[in-house]
Write a structure and sequence with these properties.
Order of helices and strands: HEEEHEHEEEE
Distance between the termini: 36 Å
Number of helices: 3
Low-confidence stretches: 5-17
Mean pLDDT: 82
Helix content: 10-25%
Strand order of the largest sheet: 1-2-3-4-5-6-7-8
Structural class: mainly beta
Largest sheet: 8 strands, antiparallel, barrel
Radius of gyration: 18 Å
Shape: elongated
Length: 161
Amino acid sequence: MKKIFTIVLLGTIFMVNAQAFKGKGDTKLNIGMTIQNGGTGILASTDFGLGENFSIGVLASYLLGGSDINNVDAEYRFDAKARFNANLGSVLNISPKFDVYPGLNIGLKNFGGHLGARYFFSNGFGIFTEFSVPFAKYDTDAMSKYNNGSTFNIGASFNLD
């Protein structure tokens, strides 16, 4: 009986209409881990759909560990960025559950670009991954290698609408 219940439950979960990006009015929340040269930490970001294929948002991250992290001031551990995404899931027509979003970001330490992807298992829950690179750095201080280089982010994504 438990096996039958489990199979029915899993089938129901996968039949739910999950959609990675719905367009105008869509709101997503990402919570996860950031990995970069010399440090790892936590991040949260949110994206607000303004049109059929674009969104804006914010990202905040804080480094918790890394090489010589105890000698680093909080201003170098923390970063905040404003983001612009081109949500291409519907353009690529792969699956309504999957979204690819290249974009630009401007932050406290640099101006850069990112490439991300989201996959939703249900209407409210999915996973995301992003890779970000700086194009121009504002802070050239030696300690600014934290939150001022390439980053890899991974975590959970939630649909807030």
